[in-house]
Amino acid sequence: MTYLIDLMKEVGKLLISGPVFSLFYLVELLPHFLFPTLAGHLGLAELDAIGLYLAGDYLLGKMVSNSICYVFQGLESQACGANDFTAARVIFQRTLLIGLVFYLVIGIPLLLNSSLIFILFGQRIEISKMAGNALVITIPGYILWFLGELLFRLYLAQMKIKQVVLISTLYGASLVLFQIAFVFILRFGFYGIPIGATLSLVTFSIIVLISNLIDSSQAPYQLFKIQSNCLENCGEMTKNYVYSLCQIGIYRFSNESCTFLAGRLGKKNLPHRQF
Description:
Helix content: over 70%
């Protein structure tokens, strides 16, 4: 009987937390609706470029962070479930170091050369340059986003519903407000979109960091207390992250292949991918 009661409690938690945690993923997809809507007011060239920008954002900008964090969340869930604060701290610090190396070796070079990559895939030169420049503008945001996403995934691993809702809501609001400010009020035009996106990514990271520092329940983890063994056995963890990166990379490229195919069809076809 006790087992059934405990089981029902766990099921109840999942029924409550599932929709709540989905909120973050919905907010993360908000740019795919918001940015083309804004770019459509600027012109067809801008709308074409924002399609490539979102493909680059999905494939190059956030792929390193997302692929690492999928594995990281599973590892942290085990550590949090066992109340092993030292293990959670070591996993966080190792993952942070590995992720930064991934960005330096893979992510940033690809983003800096994204215009050339788009051109090699047969996209128009002027559109490729616009999208590539936008991705370069967003590079600082992607790096800070990685730190913020690690801390946020720790909240997900601990099933902290209030923090997840608050952070997701503030991040979504910052996305909308920064876009309105830079595109329509300050009239930065097309490049107001990546500037606003960068500031919203930075805002997300700052909010998560402040939340982590002032949340007393996070104090035992002492995530930023350097562990002497955080560099030990990095090889196995790196291998798991590489597997995840390859798997998600193939999946995302298959999703975004329609963008590159549409870009080869003609001048007015790329916007039609935003369905």
